[in-house]
Structure formats: C-alpha cells, structure tokens
Amino acid sequence: MSGLITDTVRLGWAALYWNLRKSIYVLRGRRPSCPCQIASDSGRAYETGCEAVLGFRSPARFRAVCPLLEARSDGNWVCSADSAAVRPFWGRATVLLGALGGLLIIALAVLGFGLLQVIGYDISFRQVVWPPAWKEFSTVQAEFYQKKAQAANARGNLADSLLLLATAYELDPRNYAVGIQLAQLRQVTQPALSDQNYARLLADHPAQREDTAQAWFRALLARGDFKTIQRVAGERLLHSGATASPAWLQAFLHATRQTGSPSTLDALIAAPELPGYLAATLRRERELYRLDRKVRLDTLSTAANLERDAFLCYHWMRYLLQEEGGAARVLTALQRTDSPLGTREKVTLQLAALALTGKTSERTSLVMRLLAQPTQPAVCELLSSHLAAYPEPELLALYIEKLTRDPMPAGDARYPQLLALYAVAGAHRDEAGMQLIAGWITVATGREYRLLASVQASFMRFPAEKTLENLLPVLQPMPLETTYALYARFSPPPPFNP
Q1: pLDDT tens per residue across span 420-449
Q2: Is residue 332 domain-resident?
Q3: Which residues are within 8 A (CB) of 176 and not within 5 positions of it... i.e. 6 or more apart?
Q4: pTM for the full model?
C-alpha cells in the first residue's frame, strides 16, 4: 500500500517534470541528449533504459505518463523509441493530473468531513464537497455553538453559554432560535444587550414578531421597565388590527398605570391606525385620570355592570377593587346572573373583594373549596396570584399542605406554577415553605436550581434591601397573573391624579 501511495505521488510530479523536459528537448531540435533515457545507453529503441522509472516501486505504473516504456523479456524496462522519436504526452499528463487532483479533492473532502463530524458539527457531505453549499457553513457553525451553549447552560455555566450563543448569533444572524435564546439568556445579567437583541429580532423576523414581542414583554415586566412595555405593547395594539390580544391591552394599561403618566395614552388614541374598538376603551381609560374619587368610583361601577366584553368587565372590576369602597360594589356586581365573566375570573375577583372587606371566614371557605378539587395548574395559579396580592400565612400553609398530599401533575405547566408558589412563600417570608418548594422545583426540572438559595436569602431581606425588579428576573417563567399580583402588592401604581 505504501508503494502504491508513493508511486501515485511520484506520477503527479513525473507527469509535469518529464513532459516539460521532453518538450524543451523537442524545441531544441532533440539536442543535446534525451532527458528521460539513460545517457550511457545507445539511445536506440529497446536497448536504452528509462531514467524516469528509477525510484518507482512498480515501473509499469509510469506507463500512465509515457506509453513508450516497455518491459523486455529479460524483465528490464526500456524505451520503445529511438532518442530522435521521444516526445511529450501532455494529453496523458492532463488526464492523469486531473484524476490525481480529483482523488486528492475527494480524499481531503472525506478527511475534512470526518474531522468536522468528530468535532461535533452537524454537517452533510454535500456541504463539504459542493462549493455552492459552502455558504451554509456559517449556519452549521452557529448550530454547533448553539448546542455547546445549551450544554454549558445545563451545567449552570452562564458565562460560557452567553459567549457561545453570541458567537453563534454573529455567525448566523438569520437564525431566530439562536437570537431569541440569546436575548432570553441576557435578560438577567445584560438587560441592555437583551433589549437590543429583541429589537433586532422584531425587525429581522416579521413572521415571528408576535412571539418575539411576548418574550420581550415578559422580560421587561420582570425588570419593571414599564416605559419600554408601553412602547412594545402600543406597537402591537396599533399593528395587530382586529386580532389584537386582550393581553396586549392589559400590558399597555398596566404599564401606563405603573408609570402614572397618561401621555402615552393620548399619543395612542391620536394614532390614525388605532382600531376603533380599542380607541373607545382607551378614551374611557384616559377619562379616569380626570375624575375625582367619587365620580370615578361611580363611573367604574357603571362600566363594570354594563360591560358585555369579558376582558373589559374584569378590567374595570380590578380597577374598582383599587378604589375605597369599591370591593363591596364588586361583590354586588358578581351576583349578577348575566355577567360575561367566566368562573375563574369571578373567583379571582371574589377572593380579592373578600380579602379587602375583611370577610375572613368566607374567604377561607372559598379557598378550602378550591383546595378540595383535584390539583390543577390553573387553580394553583389562581391561588398563588391571590396570595401574592393579599397575603395570609394560614391560607398559604393550607395551600402548601394540599400540594404535599396531592402534587401538581407532571408537565411543562408545573415548573412556572412552582416558581410562582416559591415567590409567594418568599413574599410571606416562609423560609421552611421555600425550602420545601425548592425541592419540588428540583424534582420538576431534573436538576438543582442553584440560584434558589440566593433568592431565598434575598426574600428574607425583602423589601428592606431588595426590590421586586431584583428578584423577578431569576424566577422566570412565572405566570403573568402572579407577576402582576406581586407588583400590585409591593409596587402599587400611583393613584389617579385628576
């Protein structure tokens, strides 16, 4: 095998070298002596040895370069032409060099393909050998770095994961999956860069604009960046047309209330592309800032009783709960048989109103009825959100005891609900409950959540040394209703200021 490889390499060189020398020999009038024949021989056919085959393991292979080489009966290899008839064979040289070049390319391609596979690149042989496919290599590299980033993140190495994802996104900025993952990973430690990533994704991937905006909104809400939420949610309301989600309206209105400034409301109302059904709602919202307390209470009460849209009815009742004397009116409104609200919304409002009016026994009874049902994520979210806004240690203890006996069913919905319950236990400064729930989170995720210990310590000092915006980013994904409830308790909006 080594002889074959050595002779093959020699053939490539010989095809150029000997044909070039023979061409010069012919151009000089076949003087002074034939370059490829042994000079001490006669120069006659079949009597003259071939100098070119010296060093070949198998001289017969040289016939691919020069067909004048022949083997005599005594086993010696000689030239079958007189010196005066020796000539170059460039046609053979071209074919031979082309074949050797092709073999070399194939060998290098196979070697490169194998090496890339060993390294871990998910690349096809076509992408290695087909030049038009080489432009796809940046995408392959990006996927490689993305996988390494995921592995680093699974090990808890956030710094390496961020660096690898940033490299992947730089290599292939069209890769939406890499971009959104990078933006989400940066939102805790590098919020400014995260916002840049989200803004770029909105511009570069219009087909995924809704998903991008939702992910960005969740990050902004956790950080308490309400001014940017106004901009993102307002853009979705303006450009979603008749398909605008009530969630975006809620996001925009909540952010506007938290900032305490209705100027963004005025700008959105004045926008010509705002759908008419939204304009009416926003004008009513804007009017609340101009009314004194008594008139505002009556206005909200009337709106809550007359509204036929379920979301808006719920929205006005939530506002009514924030007004002095409004909770009693909510309890009265909930007794209507023609209410557009669903069961979940009614129970949520009823629990809040009972807490605000001090009807402890009725509130406890309602919570007990909820806990008597089979454990479901929706019920868990409802209770977590309620206890986040209206704390009650005894009810939290009953809730945790229920989950100890009857855990939430396994599934993707369990993890956010457990994070919500963990935050609620932290808001109650229930250290034992937090430790218990941390164990449930570890089981649900299959790995230790290392940040929980520091989050627990922070909650023990909260709110004296920490703000909600310091804690929420590391407790994601948390249900939105629980996040809203935590803001309502620890960072309530300023009062309407006529």
Answers
A1: 999 999 999 999 999 999 999 888 887 777
A2: no
A3: 201, 205, 208
A4: 0.75
**388 falls within a domain:** yes
Pick from 95, 115, 149: which residue ends a domain? 95
Q: What is the pLDDT of residues 233-251, one digit of tens each?
A: 999 988 876 566 788 999 9
String of DSSP letters for 202-258: HHH-GGGHHHHHHHHHHHHHHHT-HHHHHHHHHHHHHHSGGG--HHHHHHHHHHHHH
DSSP 419-467: HHHHHHHHHTT-HHHHHHHHHHHHHHHTS--THHHHHHHHHHHTTTS--
In a domain, 171, yes or no: no
Range of the domain at 79: 2-95
Give the other-Cβ count within 10 Å of 83's Cβ.
18
pLDDT at 59 over 70: yes
Write down which residue in 48, 80, 95 finishes a domain.
95
Q: What is the tally of structural domains in the chain? A: 2
Q: Distance between CA atoms of 186 and 168, rounded to whole angstroms?
A: 14
Could you tell me how far CA 488 lies from the centroid of its own chain? 30
Q: Which residue has the higher pLDDT, 251 or 157?
A: 251
